[in-house]
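S.,

Sequence below, as promised.
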Amino acid sequence: MDFNDTPEEAEFRKEARAFLEKHLKLKDGAGGRHRSSDDFLKRAKAWQKTKAEGGFAQITWPKEWGGRGGTAMQQVIWNQEEAKFDAPVGPFAIGLGMCVPTVIAFGSDEHKKRYVEKALRGEEIWCQLFSEPAAGSDVAGVKTRAIKDGDEWVINGQKVWTTGAHFSDYGILLTRTDPKAPKHKGLTMFIVDMHQKGVEAKPIHQASGGREFNEVYFTDVRIPDSDRLGEVGAGWKVALVTLMNERLAVGGSPGPDWKEIMDYARGTSSLTDQAFREKLADWYVAAQGYNLTKFRTQTALSRGETPGPENSIGKIITANQLQDICNSAIEMQDHFGIMTDSETMPSNALFQQSFMWAPGLRIAGGTDEILKNIIAERVLGLPQDVRVDKDVPFESLKQG
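The prediction came back faster than expected:
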């Protein structure tokens, strides 16, 4: 394992840092998670365009798609440096990290010409339409129907927990096209225009105060067959590409870690509490273990190798630790911990906001249980769970 940049990587890091210093300010504290205001979207689009013009929007993408044609390690370096600045990146994480790569992998040349550059430059925002009221981590259980009508498909159904649907322009939509096939084999993926007739997004008011998630309803929505991604009935194959990108993207928790709570504890008596000191040590060891795991991945990327399966553990570790840290910080604040005013509370109420967000992070991109199954079966090689619905037609499965 090598912790140092190569000379080429060091030069790229210097270039990236200079670009960021020219256009942004360093973070001066912890911010909130509410990322759907009109002002924030305006700033995010402007920053995305600036990155694209500077060649930093999607570093590994080919130049013909508006990327830099760079290495995966350069993308890692950019992410590390950008995270130090007040960069409004949230609205594009799903589109550029999950949706557009799926379009690139399965779309036509016309799709790539139409959508990729506009998304890269921040002109259009994408969302991912997978989860439903009865199909969360079990994505293959979706019920949203797509019925062929000539050269079009008619869509009816509901999605839920769709991040950014209310401000998105397009989305990738997983539907059921053959209810007589087993649930993994009767799915088809489409590109959907979020502004067209019959599409309705309703923001969900979260406990944290944010409104990033949505219910999305489809009523007789017509999608041309030309906007299908992959073959009819091969939607699960397409979805797996998206899901692997999603689970990598949500692998690190976007909230306070041991450093933030230790800084806060310095102003209280908690650092003299043996029980708290032991928890702080546990958080530190877990964080360092995860960092070393990430270094292993980065070393592989730096050498042009394919990383191993170690990324699978990231979300399980960081999501649970985020929840534990925030809970401990709020308990340290005693009865003041119920206050969420960012102007008066320590760390701009980051602990309160992240505490409300943390349980969702343990669900997004696959629940803890789903990821543990993946690690058990695909990393450790343990026997698979018994799946009684594997070869049963979807319409014959018991519902409710």
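Confidence is low (pLDDT under 50) at residues 30-34.

Coffee later?
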